[in-house]
Amino acid sequence: MLTTVALTPVDFKRWAEHLTRQIAESGRAGRPFFSPFEAVDFESPERRARFESRLSIPLPQPTWMRAWAIEGPDERFIAHLDLNASSIPAEKHRATLGIGVEEGFYRRGLGRKLMLEAIEFATRNHIEWIDLSVFRDNQAAIGLYRYFGFEEIGRRDDRFRISGRSVDDISMTLRIKG
Ligand SMILES: CC(C)(COP(=O)(O)OP(=O)(O)OC[C@H]1O[C@@H](n2cnc3c(N)ncnc32)[C@H](O)[C@@H]1OP(=O)(O)O)[C@@H](O)C(=O)NCCC(=O)NCCS
Known about the structure:
Bound molecules: coenzyme A
Distance between the termini: 31 Å
Structural class: alpha+beta
Helix content: 25-40%
CATH architecture: 3-Layer(aba) Sandwich
Radius of gyration: 16 Å
CATH superfamily: Gcn5-related N-acetyltransferase (GNAT)
Low-confidence stretches: none
Mean pLDDT: 96
Strand order of the largest sheet: 1-2-3-4-5-7-6
Order of helices and strands: EHHEEEHEHEE
Number of strands: 7
Shape: globular
Strand content: 25-35%
């Protein structure tokens, strides 16, 4: 049985370890790129401080973050989703979403489970829009977002150059019905 956990500051280490494993899969072994970053120190003290403080910021104050993870059988995190508020008070009715599942756990409904959790959270907390960015050739993620009703609202061709490859980026958004 895989459990979904709403993260608190004490979860930082497991969160950072999962992100390190998950981001390392971007663009590897025939998979599309899904992150613009090639190497990130997720465990740095600055990231820990930001993680701890943003999780504690009450909604709808700017820069809050809420995150969920799925615990694998050995208690490590194998999937995550984060919702992030911008630093601009006039944008407080929106949040930006990030999600990732470790490869060994793809296509078992974990992405869908986390998306449901986030959409329910947004609905309860009067967030009216969820925004995200996704690389154009990331068909798995685009399929997941479309399943939940996200619509494509824009595209930036050649947004990133990753390992010498040009990557187009799509913006998608979901209107939450309160
Ligand atoms: C995108 C991702 C989160 C999907 O997670 P997942 O747990 O495998 O997805 P689920 O099993 O919940 O699938 C839900 C739906 O998403 C879509 N989907 C998932 N994988 C897909 C794939 N490879 N191709 C097409 N659609 C796919 C389908 O509609 C699927 O429903 P179905 O299985 O009934 O057909 C996962 O592939 C992942 O983490 N990829 C790497 C990181 C990433 O791309 N993050 C997003 C960056 S924008």
